[in-house]
Design brief:
Elements lengths: L6 H13 L11 H12 L14
Length: 56
């Protein structure tokens, strides 16, 4: 079962919805979360699953 609070999954859902025509202002994930995902990917760590600074 997928975790509905998984940041990586939420980013993927928003990206797909936006590509399908959803307005960018209707995203669930904020700009900061999108930046974290891009930074982690550029560092070779993949898309974050848990937001930085959160307790695991």
């Amino acid at each position: 079962m997928r975790n509905p609070h998984d940041l990586a999954e939420a980013l993927r859902r928003d990206d797909l919805a936006e590509e399908a025509g959803m307005h960018a202002n209707d995203r669930v994930t904020c700009w900061t979360h999108q930046c974290w995902a891009e930074e982690c990917a550029s560092w070779g760590h993949g898309t974050p699953v848990i937001a930085p600074g959160s307790i695991r």
